[in-house]
Automatic annotation (TrEMBL), chains A, B, C, D, E, F:
Belongs to the HyuE racemase family. It comes from Rhizobium mesosinicum. This is Aspartate/glutamate racemase family protein. It comes from the Bacteria.
Length: 247, 247, 247, 247, 247, 247
């Protein structure tokens, strides 16, 4: 089984961190293929960055089709472009937020997502509500720019810990979801410190991808995720025109 | 007052239709500037088309900043890229779906949105729920490809009328919202036939744009719509890198 | 275009303040006609005051029909009698709360309404939920009796500012809605201080009224807002008996 | 224990029917005092009628205070003026809709309310949602004008039965709530026919009133139902000015 | 009328307290029959205890059928086994939480439930949401083990009072619901202290049981509470096999 | 990895079918241990059967602890006793309904659960709402007694197919969830027929169990699933008394 993990931002060190986290939990027969977007923002912080990361994401999904993959993961906690990717692909596509909150739901009745900047908090809260967890999950921002997570000296981990402690004492959180792909290497350590489940989206998404593939399930092509209709795409986007018939 | 209407698909005839609808309702001092995206799909049907229309939309918003506009409208009922556009712009940005359902809410307690294809129905239903109208509005698809609305001989209007009649008899609809920018020229005629309010998103958005500008209100730059943070954008997207400081 | 603003309480100074706010934002061709209820409470604080303000409101709507108006506004943030007014009138009727929260929804994903007394807080929270903004808006009371807003020496503005500051720091509010018609003159000043959108219901309702009239839209007379059925009204209310056939 | 039942419309035959239904279920020591509003519409069909029934309702509540009552019931399924009555009174006040749907909730997980006209359907659906039963209860209209229920030859009962049958077959209703005070005499007969619980609001409200009184519970005077603040009421409403200090 | 109150835990002193509270509010003709489960946990704190209390509850309901009862109450605030009991019995069955929150809903628009341990808080919050009160009621834990309520020297009442005070000051609670059967003797005293309605589930359930019986209403046997289908039960549970035909 | 699947009804043929389905999808290193409850109903149809199946379920979980298992699955689509099992166990516990609807959520935006009898429909609908899928999923009953699924000549499959066809044409379902453990062998065949994802709860739960174990995640012992407090259990339930200290 080959799982393609696409980092929709262009920072290769974050891809490597996510790939390492993925490989650490992948099953014996699973090959993790990591791709970094080659066009778009160096980090995804808010709606503008996210929207402009989608062409790069879709490009990776498309160009790697020939080599083949059995499932894909969008390695950003905002689930950037997830709906578009599911519409495009014939294989299952997983997002970090959706995978992580579904996983948390099996472990705890109430939990808190701790993300980076305030500008991402409402965006993720909207996702959590759309995924049906609005009455079970709270979202908190810890005031950490995404790229500070790549810098051990930034103090980012202390801010993150402080916010987790507030979630436990003020929210009655029974579990913690780490709300940024850049936090993926911290889950195990934080779980040991706080002795509650700490869920990382990269790891959660890998296991969901493996699950869907081994169950022979893929995105429904009936209704809202039906394959793109064949049509012209103009100008700089012309390369994205679908070439096959709609499902 | 100058209002920029961007058609995020690349079909100029739809832009013209929307511009005409906008000018028909614009106040005396309002100038409507119509722009057609120069990159992306010729029509927006589903998540894939929508995501790939956003760079073209943002390009128009950016390139026309120098000439200046006081508000912008995204002329697609899927509210394609609306969050990104609000994050980008310093002026108010309106979407057709959000404007139309807010307008319908002042006129009716229960209403139905009639859109084109099934693949757009769930997408719009998600928007309607996010905008808080989930318990008041139903969304129906009338099985019309978007570009058939440009062809008088396509039978599209008969399909649309049949679906409106079902909405009135089965949903208890008190008003109808036309769920595609390509239907903008039909609102007045359908209102005369069915004698219930028929709301067109283009017209609704023009009035909301005028309202916000004349009230001196613009998108909040605190929280989820804060201006893009300055950062590098790579590759084909490098032109989108924000150059000003964050709000 | 003639817009009738009815203050459903009997305090003329509040009517004047609302009329001034309305005229300040009205379009060139819009005439604002201000009316003060001649029967009922001097201010509306809670359910009892509100219910007993409705006959006075409907009287103004009725008696001014002959002179004519194209839309009406109920100038109380509780949206007092709004449903009854919409059922009665053949022209669009707007409420302050509904207009303000719809307007806020175009500017911010999360916002806070700051009202006067605790007894109005839950009433407005119920409105906000009915209008579909329950997951996006919080309602706060600032412990100000309505008529203190008419008295510059009362300290009311300081209490209001303190509550706005709590909304910004504790709620993550991206915009503020002023939850009382008596605050209408403060919006611009507060927006300058706090640098987030501050929405006043009177101004918002004027623009929505103008929008509906210029779009040729009025309240649906199918379903819940169908015109009153012709029937006898007894005793002191006999003057309210509808005289036309139902819609 | 003395329970005051106020019919907020002015049709005495409906009052008598409600009083008979109340007396049929009242406990041994309960005295039912029936009052018919002396001002307002002869039947309540929609928002306009309802709003103008409130002064008559409050007048009965007030004028009968000297004689005394331990609880009051608003005998209209729209719960007309219920919030105002609770704010006014020092004793518990019950509405038919709220009492009936709470009672149905103890008997069935899913149920249907069958009311009269379409114009009342949405109004009652809004109440049902406010009372928290939106995901458990459906509301249907049976196209019966209220006063036809007073006329045995009108065919109203056949229409009502047809709608109940649709509720059972199409909604999966486990119980039926009769959505009009004028249907109060039909509950037992319909329950015998359809062998599911059939709940009448008058009877339900009497038992809730007895319950609250015997438990020593009354409306909270903290927050949204705090007693009216002392203030002037002008003109034809001056008699409604509160004379006591606020709670 | 005979009302059976079953304490689903095995602590007889709690049964006696509940029976005394029930008798204190029962109508003249109501006989309260108190039963203590003879199998299961000595107190119910969380899901495990609750699930294992159900066979004992159902045993009491079954064995006392021959002597006869007109309604039954499950005397635990977790509404332990309520759905199963309603499916089993031919008479109405009431739970404390459902009865108490419905009663609170007649008295206050916003209220707080104060329960014992954190492990019960989410469980009760889930019930409150299922009963439709999620947007009106908050649930708080006061960190009191259930059996400490039986011990006057435990300091439990002080903890309970402190939590009520937080509910009043922080939640804007207009009424308080006591969230444990073991608090039943404290309601009147706390109501006197805090001067807001304080609702005890035992008392509320007794009045609801009396109401349903006197209205001739019982659990619907159509749909989700249909009588158990006749079938074999194996092993230690064989005595629970239904012997009658399904409803 | 050892996964214990407990069939909470006592019909061994259903256990075998579930075990076969589990083994068909289990990863290479996963051992499936199947257990049939030795006490309780032969099938679970409704609340009564479900409640009385829990002691048998917990007995299997307890007695097999010594031999050891890394995760457990409750093999009934009603998620019978799932909360109690999670409270009891130190390893992850999965339910079929929760696993299946989470899985469906990765594949489709709207889907339908098709279950057996009407009495199970509302019960499952309540679960679906609790799991946050209420606005995305519809639940349908196909009028099949559970044990008819064990009898190839019963016509059960035809009824099931007819209901799936209604789901596709009337609900706009993009995927189908099979709402009974007894349907587990039909998923692949039905997916081939209808060409939409068909999700079986047993298979979904196995993959979720494997996922949680390999991620080192288990049920949170903070809050609502905290380990049972040590206490006496009386009578026939005395064997269930927890012997370890609470978490």
């Amino acid at each position: 089984m080959r799982i393609l993990i696409v980092n929709p931002n262009t920072t290769a060190s974050m891809t490597e961190k996510a790939a390492a986290a993925a490989r650490a939990v992948a099953a014996a027969g699973t090959e993790i293929i990591a791709a970094t977007s080659r066009m778009g923002p160096v980090s995804i912080e808010g709606h503008y960055d996210g929207a402009l990361a989608i062409p790069g994401l879709l490009t990776e999904l498309k160009e790697r089709q020939e080599a083949g993959y059995d499932a894909a993961i969008v390695a950003c906690f905002d689930d950037t472009g997830l709906d578009a990717a599911r519409t495009f692909a014939d294989v299952p596509v997983l997002g970090l937020c959706e995978s992580a909150v579904a996983t948390a739901g099996f472990l705890a009745q109430r939990f808190t997502v701790v993300t980076t900047l305030e500008r991402s908090r409402v965006l993720i809260d909207n996702l959590v509500r759309r995924y049906g967890m609005g009455s079970r999950a709270k979202v908190r921002a810890s005031d950490i720019p995404v790229l500070e997570l790549e810098d051990a000296a930034s103090g980012a981990i202390d801010k993150l810990k402080a916010e987790i402690e507030r979630a436990l004492s003020e929210d009655g959180a029974e579990a913690i979801v780490l709300g940024c792909a850049g936090m993926t290497d911290l889950a195990r350590e934080l779980q040991d410190v706080y002795r509650v489940p700490v869920i990382d989206g990269v790891a959660a998404a890998v296991k969901q991808a493996e699950a869907l593939v081994s169950l022979g399930l893929s995105t429904s092509k009936r209704g809202s995720y039906a394959s793109p209709l064949p049509k012209h795409f103009m100008g700089a986007m012309s390369g994205f025109a679908p070439i096959r018939a709609a499902g």
